[in-house]
Inverse folding.
């Protein structure tokens, strides 16, 4: 891991403040330049960033350390450092995302728009989760600032070793008891939706639709014991074993679906490569910014 | 390519000792060589297209339907919803954003509202700015409503349920789903179906394509997804990259066909030693990293 | 000839069943067979047999790593797979460690599944935590980290799920590298998430065996890797779990669940037939009307 400098104590706060001031100053300077310069700067930075990752991938690594290095500079370690930095930047964009949520739902409640009660529920959920999560980890948050640890009630932070797998505190109750089950519920809706989608979509309107439907039905029945019972009469070891529904559906999956998946995979890989090249070399100009309506 | 060859030759002769180990070359060099070759083919086609005329691109019904579906929303006076999937700010999702911006630009022309929904806050920052600029470029900055570019949640199913809610409440007329999708794909597509929305979906996530085919009106599959910007803009540079991709695919196909023919002929001739040589060649790429 | 109201009603009846009725029907046909057990044939396909044979040949002095990347949403498919696989490892007296990369909630439900497998095998005395197995907890799925982990496990992971330093966990002693001649002989990825491709990429060069238990939706993409030998066996969804239970002769939830799934598939089959019957009725009606005109 490349380490430039690890700041501690007052130096850390000074470094944070300086980084903030430098970032604001840099933004101010870039903001003053003309659009053409900004565009050129973006193209240049995109190219340099892409070149770095290009080199990191294409220069073969040392087989022992699996690290890529050029003239003693470990590109792999630098990738990790840049990865950490982008995670920090990503963290800041969360603030923007939360601002968007608060803004939209705040207006819904403030202007009593239709279904504003759901927006109120959002604020309630947001506040309760944030409160109990921060409270539970209070000592973790305050430790770097030298604040002495405070004792937390067990319903806020359960430290009982016997409850390690499932602490008996409010945050765990909300996370494990509510959120996880709500996620599982949303997922299980899928089972119902696939039935209604299949009922609606698998209707023979063309030759292709007929093939799709017949293969889907064979595969569906080939996956379950009830389907297997249909061809139970055919000997497992006999010459017609391939006609047993489970063997036939396995054949469809390996002999027909396998190559098709590979073909799609090749196409997708090449598409990804081409798209990456276009973005790296800024050939997609006008697609994202500066396009005409 | 010749530069890469020269570098490899130099590394072999003057580089570290492991460059002379065949296993090392198999694991770390040959695979990279193939990617470099394919990249060069695509780049060459792009550069060639810059100087040449228009390129033929076959009809992709899902992308052709975009104009029609935006028009439908306008006629019905209902908004358009566009989901950018669950991906991060990466190449896959940037392609989805490119399609979204095409829809937004069309919708601005028709005066139709587009609600853009995403799961990643970094993507939100970029999308918000790009949509804002699209409105400014169209001379209608005042029409841009910040509430229509929405970060919903970074949790997969919270994101899905928020999308279902928006689609149902706003009664979207046309729903687009581009980007990476997982289990939430069908949940959202069915919700849009229930409000009678026309749906266009495109994803490189092959596991979700069957669900989209079942629930949506148009589905863009495989590398059609990456052809979207080229198809929509007809920019020679972008079309050129499609030509490059096709040439690279031909190379794959030729290798596969030659391999099959060679092994079949050698097996029929009972020349198993020669077939072994072909297997050794194929194994050059086994375990490549 | 006037529009035939009876035929039209039939068409509507077959083709436009209210979706709420469709959902209730699914709920009932899935539930009943799971409560009232049926006896149906189940045949084991090749991929689970291959996985079993691979585990049967593993050396006992090495460790098996399980990458457990499923949570509440996919537990119906992945939990029975995990329990059956762990039971097999216990029967073979193999040491194993568990790692999760998909969701922060994974280590806990993996832990519950392992405890259940140990109980079912009556191996609480033999399978003491730390001695025979360990749970390394959750790590954010990140490419550079996984590359470091597959190069050298020890520096990449500092403590287990409970916060115990890895150095003092006996089962982790000297466990540093993946590979047939190294410390970790096999990796089994039980997953409902997009973790498989990361393992293909990073495990490939180590030549360690790679077994997979995935959801049925993910399976079609994986057959190509089974064909190329990159996978040493695979379990597909609940069916894979049921097949593995049959191989080990330990019928459990996978087997029971298959009865429910059987009738659910049959239900979809019937609905598709009804949908197509409505298309046929509509077509016949239109022909009749055209004939009359």
């Amino acid at each position: 891991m490349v380490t430039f400098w690890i700041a501690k104590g007052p130096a850390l706060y000074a470094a944070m403040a300086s980084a903030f001031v430098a970032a604001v100053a840099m933004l101010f300077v870039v903001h003053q330049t003309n659009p053409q310069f900004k565009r050129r700067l973006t193209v240049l930075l995109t190219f340099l960033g892409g070149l770095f990752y290009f080199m990191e991938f294409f220069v073969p690594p040392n087989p022992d350390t699996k690290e890529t290095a050029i003239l003693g500079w470990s590109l792999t370690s630098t990738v990790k450092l840049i990865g950490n930095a982008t995670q920090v930047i990503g963290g800041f964009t969360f603030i923007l995302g939360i601002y968007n949520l608060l803004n939209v739902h705040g207006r819904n409640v403030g202007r009593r728009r239709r279904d504003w009660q759901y927006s109120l529920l959002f604020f309630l959920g947001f506040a309760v989760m944030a409160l109990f999560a921060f409270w539970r980890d209070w000592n973790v948050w305050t430790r770097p600032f030298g604040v002495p640890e405070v004792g937390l009630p067990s319903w806020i932070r359960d430290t009982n070793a016997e409850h390690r797998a499932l602490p008996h505190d409010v945050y765990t109750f909300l996370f494990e008891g509510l959120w996880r089950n709500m996620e599982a519920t949303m997922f299980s809706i899928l089972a119902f939706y696939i039935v209604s989608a299949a009922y609606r979509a698998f209707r023979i309107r063309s030759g292709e639709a007929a093939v799709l439907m017949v293969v889907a039905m064979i595969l569906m029945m080939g996956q379950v014991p009830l389907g297997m019972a249909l061809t139970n009469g055919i000997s497992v070891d006999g010459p017609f074993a391939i006609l047993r529904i489970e063997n036939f559906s396995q054949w469809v999956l390996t002999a027909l679906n396998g190559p098709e998946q590979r073909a799609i995979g090749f196409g997708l890989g090449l598409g990804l490569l081409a798209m990456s090249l276009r973005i790296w070399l800024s050939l997609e100009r006008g697609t994202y910014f500066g396009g005409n309506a | 390519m010749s530069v890469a060859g020269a570098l490899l030759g130099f590394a072999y002769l003057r580089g570290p000792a492991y460059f002379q180990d065949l296993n090392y070359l198999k694991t770390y060099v040959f695979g990279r060589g193939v990617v470099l070759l394919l990249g060069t083919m695509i780049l060459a086609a792009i550069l060639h297209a810059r100087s040449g005329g228009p390129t033929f691109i076959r009809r992709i019904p899902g992308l052709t339907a975009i104009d029609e579906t935006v028009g439908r929303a306008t006629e019905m006076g209902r908004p358009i919803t566009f989901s950018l999937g669950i991906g991060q700010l990466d190449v896959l999702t940037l392609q989805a954003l490119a399609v979204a911006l095409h829809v937004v630009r069309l919708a601005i022309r028709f005066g139709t509202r587009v609600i853009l929904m995403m799961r990643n806050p970094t993507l939100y920052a970029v999308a918000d700015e790009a949509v804002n600029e699209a409105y400014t470029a169209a001379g209608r900055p005042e029409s841009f409503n910040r509430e229509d570019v929405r970060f919903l949640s970074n949790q997969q199913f919270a994101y899905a349920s928020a999308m279902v809610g928006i689609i149902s409440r706003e009664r979207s007329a046309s729903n687009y789903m581009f980007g990476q999708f997982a289990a939430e794909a069908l949940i959202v597509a069915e919700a849009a179906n229930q409000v009678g929305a026309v749906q266009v979906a495109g994803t490189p996530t092959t596991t979700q394509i069957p669900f989209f085919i079942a629930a949506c009106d148009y589905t863009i599959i495989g590398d059609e997804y990456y052809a979207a910007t080229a198809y929509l803009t007809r920019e020679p540079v972008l079309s050129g990259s499609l030509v490059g991709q096709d040439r690279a695919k031909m190379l794959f196909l030729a290798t596969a066909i030659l391999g099959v023919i060679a092994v079949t002929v050698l097996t029929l001739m009972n020349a198993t030693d020669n077939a072994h040589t072909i297997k050794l060649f194929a194994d050059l790429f086994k375990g490549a990293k | 000839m006037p529009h035939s109201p009876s035929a039209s009603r039939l068409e509507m009846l077959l083709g436009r069943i209210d979706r709420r009725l469709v959902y209730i029907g699914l709920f009932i046909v899935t539930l009943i067979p799971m409560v009232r057990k049926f006896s149906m044939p189940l045949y084991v396909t090749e991929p689970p047999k291959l996985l079993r044979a691979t585990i049967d040949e593993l050396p006992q002095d090495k460790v098996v790593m399980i990458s457990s990347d499923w949570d509440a949403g996919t537990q119906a498919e992945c939990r029975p797979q995990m329990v059956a696989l762990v039971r097999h490892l216990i029967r073979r007296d193999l040491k194993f460690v568990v790692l999760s990369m998909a969701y922060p909630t994974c280590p806990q439900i993996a832990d519950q599944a392992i405890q259940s497998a140990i109980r079912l095998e009556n191996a609480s005395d033999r399978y003491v935590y730390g001695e025979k197995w360990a749970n390394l907890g959750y790590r954010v799925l990140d490419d550079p980290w996984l590359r470091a982990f597959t190069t050298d496990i020890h520096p990449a992971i500092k403590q287990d799920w409970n916060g115990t330093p890895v150095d003092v966990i006996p089962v982790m002693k000297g466990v540093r590298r993946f590979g047939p001649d190294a410390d970790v002989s096999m990796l089994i990825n039980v997953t409902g998430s997009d973790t498989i491709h990361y393992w293909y990429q990073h495990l490939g060069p180590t030549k360690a065996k790679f077994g997979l238990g995935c959801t049925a939706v993910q399976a079609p993409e994986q057959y190509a890797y089974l064909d190329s030998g990159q996978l040493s066996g695979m379990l597909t969804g609940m069916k894979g779990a049921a097949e593995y239970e049959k191989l080990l002769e330990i019928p459990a939830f996978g087997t029971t669940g298959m009865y429910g799934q059987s009738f659910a598939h049959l239900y979809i089959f019937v609905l598709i037939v009804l949908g197509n019957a409505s298309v046929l009725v509509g077509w016949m009606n239109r022909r009749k009307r055209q004939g009359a005109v």
User: Anything to note?
Assistant: The longest strand of chain B covers residues 174-180. Strands of chain B lie at 80-85, 114-118, 149-151, 174-180, 198-202, 218-220. Chain B has eleven helices and six strands.
